[in-house]
Amino acid sequence: MALPPGFRWGVATAAYQIEGAAAEDGRGPSTWDTFAHTPGRTADGATGDVACDHYHRWPEDVALMGDLGVDAYRFSIAWPRVQPTGSGPANARGLDFYERLVDGLLERGIAPAATLYHWDLPQPLEDAGGWLARDTAYRFAEFAYLAAERLGDRIDTWITLNEPVVVMAYGYAFGIYAPGEELLLGALPTAHHQLLAHGLGTSALRARGAGRVGIANHYSPARPRDAASEADTAAAGAFDLLMNRLFTEPLLLGRYPDLAPLGGPDPASYIRDEDLPVIAQPIDLLGVNYYQPTGIAAPADLSSPLPFELVDLPGHPVTGLGWPIVPDGLHGLLTGLRDTYGPLLPPVHITENGCSFPDEPGPGGAVDDAARIAFLDAHIGAVRAAVDEGVDVRAYYVWSLLDNFEWASGYGPRFGLVHVDYATQKRTPKASFAWYRDLIAASREPLAGG
User: Fold this and answer.
1) CATH code (residue 347)
2) pTM reported for the whole predicted model
3) Which listed residue (19, 126, 142, 163) is catalytic?
4) Active site residue 149
5) Catalytic member of 142, 181, 352, 406
6) What's the domain count of the chain?
7) Does residue 81 sit within a domain?
8) Looking at the keywords, is Hydrolase present (predicted)?
9) SS3 for the chain, per residue?
10) How confident is the model over 88-132, as pLDDT tens digits?
11) Known catalytic membership, residue 389
């Protein structure tokens, strides 16, 4: 079950979750700054003002990655650091930080993989309509061009957007994440405008000679509560349409699935014919973020505006957040993408996979996170099995390198291979860090002896 030559092992983070330095070197406010500073929006009123202080401690974090032996590091470039108002010329001091980081990675033989949008929209753009406004897609393309103009000669992998479905659903439909809108199906235009931003951003990156370009989609396979129930099966299909197919078919097939079962605004009111060729231009990779499948049932309330409701998936162990642990869901997702899209499916990178458990140092300061090791081992096994069955998977990134600010959940959940004491910023590699380091080293042994 060896992985193919050139397979990349990596770790991933996101700017607002780790950087801190929220008002330094010309950085402007993002929607997450506004949201986190609004009382009642985040657990314990937590913000990313300091987070893991990665902005100042990045050399220590790069050294940790060097010790880990990863091939690649997926990080995000904070849009409000580069364009504090979301438009206009680049803020040189913001790009200076990412240049230092990229050069530090390359000195250790670690390939930088940059995500351009990991949810930190400049607040002035939100004030002008955010992702409900078509113009935001064009502003994103300008940002992408500026980033590639400075860094494109050193970054070989670019991710335009991270999990646009989460921005649509959590940010604009249900109000759980920034910007906190509760539009339900009225949020559907934000899906299209993000996909348009991806297409325009891809063109901008390539105009500046960027390397591989792709997008990181969140995938959650829908599992009906009762597979024998037509109503539950139809509800699972509606969930799959909204959360998975909506963000894949325009990219790979050049068309949207039939959105009529969902309701919401008339697609003709926000989708233009000329948009789809821009969205569907070939990409070099499809990023797959996988954490869990979702249990789905027909809505008990017939007046519900949504054609499904979420239910528990019994019979599985769960993470510290109560998420079901289902490694075969990742295997089925990968083989399903291959079977559905065939030769249209580009190489796959697992851009996020990981779990949160309540990790705390034990006697002597060690963090024994055996549950995380078991989770990662099972999911990497699922990837290997999919590769054995012909799925072209070329990278795997653990979420996350560091414990960090976990959005509306604040600093309670811990996803990192490295424990962070937020009061002192002390980094302590967990047992899973050593396990992943050894796995990476072992994966290279046959190549070294061949």
Assistant:
1) 3.20.20.80
2) 0.98
3) 163
4) no
5) 352
6) 1
7) yes
8) yes
9) CCCCCCCEEEEECCHHHHCCCCCCCCCCCEHHHHHHCCCCCCHHHCCCCCCCCHHHHHHHHHHHHHHHCCCEEEEECCHHHHCCCCCCCCCHHHHHHHHHHHHHHHHCCCEEEEEEECCCCEHHHHHCCHHHCCHHHHHHHHHHHHHHHHHCCCCCEEEEEECHHHHHHHHHHCCCCCCCCCCHHHHHHHHHHHHHHHHHHHHHHHHCCCCEEEEEEECCCEEECCCCCHHHHHHHHHHHHHHCHHHCHHHHCCCCCCCHHHCCCCHHHCCCCCHHHHHCCCCCEEEEECCCCEEEECCCCCCCCCCCEEECCCCCCECCCCCECCHHHHHHHHHHHHHHHHHHCCCEEEEEECCCCCCCCCHHHCCCCHHHHHHHHHHHHHHHHHHHCCCCEEEEEEECCECCCCHHHCCCCCCCCEEEECCCCEEEECHHHHHHHHHHHHHHHHHHCC
10) 999 999 999 999 999 999 999 999 999 999 999 999 999 999 999
11) no
